[in-house]
Design a protein that fits this description.
It is a single chain. By secondary structure, this protein is of the alpha/beta class. The chain has 16 helices and 9 strands. The radius of gyration is 20 Å and the shape is globular. The chain folds into 2 domains: about 250 residues, TIM Barrel (Alpha-Beta Barrel); about 70 residues, Orthogonal Bundle (Non-ribosomal Peptide Synthetase Peptidyl Carrier Protein, Chain A), CATH 1.10.1200. Strands 1, 2, 3, 4, 5, 6, 7, 8 and 9 form a 9-stranded parallel sheet that branches. The protein starts with a helix and ends in a 13-residue tail after the last helix.
Length: about 325
């Protein structure tokens, strides 16, 4: 499958696609739905433990659930045992996603300590076996991978890794342009993405990720590296408008930074409602608390409003406050 065929099968003929990154405790179904309506070309689930999936964990299965409106969607799995990854890939495929994605990049200690996520970057042979196992398990969907540049700056082998993944049947590769040692600190090194795109013999799509927090930076990543798509993570939290803004900037060279206050609050309220539908009221309200800070950033007295919202454990008073916050209570709000 060529990169043109891969993208066209998922996205049609869309130029320079923009993906929502899989983010633990962030990119749940409600947030994915919001981002799709705001212009994300494709979305991915939070990463899901292979061990939990093969045990039929209710939490893992719930993480994997999605709505048709979220398509195209990838289910991302991780693990440190080939047998578990094979079984989890079968479970994921049975849910009928558009893509099954392997996480070879999570830097968190509790994941790495189990030989999963970025730990695989220390053992390329094991990564090859793991990727091949998932490709063998998934019969009717493309398998993709998300990883980092390497374990640390002294062990970057991303070009070799990309060619190896391509050889075992992986159809696209997302690279967060940091090492595991960096975690989320320092700057992403986009130069490696450019080198990757110029690797002889590499023809699968390369999706660039890391430090894309504005339309200008997304365009810069496309232009400077030649990546086939850009994945946006933290830049979308509380700011799903970044996808439509970036599309406008890529296509027209400009975008509106004026997000009306009413629209910002209504989108926040919509995500809250979706969260309660998805998780039930108690947990759905709790989950949304991590999003208020970014949604309300830039609003006069936004911190005070956020503290008010955090006091409530049911949806009704939060919706009432969000949807009745008046123009007189702030001076201005701008896009994050």
């Amino acid at each position: 499958m060529s990169k043109e065929d891969f993208f066209e099968s998922l996205l049609g003929k869309q130029d320079r696609p923009l993906f929502l990154a899989p983010m633990e405790d962030v990119s749940d179904a409600p947030f994915r739905q919001i981002c799709r309506t705001m212009g994300a070309s494709m979305v991915f689930t939070e990463f899901i433990s292979s061990e939990a999936l093969i045990r039929d964990s209710d939490i893992a299965l719930h993480k994997m659930s999605f709505q048709e409106a979220e398509r195209p969607l990838g289910i991302q799995i991780f693990g440190g045992r080939e047998e578990a990854m094979y079984g989890a890939a079968k479970v994921a495929e049975a849910s009928n996603p558009d893509v099954v994605d392997i996480n070879f990049g999570c830097p968190v200690y509790k994941v790495v300590n189990k030989g999963a996520g970025a730990a695989c970057l220390k053992d390329i042979d094991m990564m090859e076996r793991m990727a091949g196992t998932v490709v063998d398990a998934v019969e009717n969907r493309p398998v993709t991978v998300k990883t980092r540049l390497g374990w640390d700056e002294n062990s970057i082998r991303i070009q070799e890794v990309a060619l190896m993944l391509q050889s075992v049947g992986v159809k696209a590769l997302t690279v967060h342009a940091r090492t595991r040692a960096q975690k989320y600190k320092g700057d992403a090194d986009w130069n490696w993405l450019k080198k990757l795109k110029n690797t002889p013999g590499l023809h699968i799509p390369i999706i660039g990720n890391g430090d894309v927090t504005s339309p200008e930076l997304a365009a810069k990543l496309f232009n400077e590296t030649g990546v086939d798509a850009v994945m946006i993570g933290r830049g979308a939290i509380g700011n799903p408008w970044i996808f439509n803004q970036t599309r406008s900037y890529l296509d027209q060279g400009s975008y509106s930074t004026d997000i009306p206050l009413r629209e910002r609050l209504e989108v926040c309220a919509k995500q809250l409602q979706l969260s309660v539908e998805h998780q039930g009221e108690r947990y759905g309200v709790i989950v949304m608390k991590k999003h208020y800070g970014q949604y309300l950033k830039g609003i006069r007295n936004g911190k005070k409003l956020r503290m008010e919202l955090m006091q409530h454990n049911t949806m009704a008073p939060i919706l009432e406050r969000l949807l009745n916050y008046t123009e007189e209570e702030h001076f201005s709000v701008s896009a994050v």
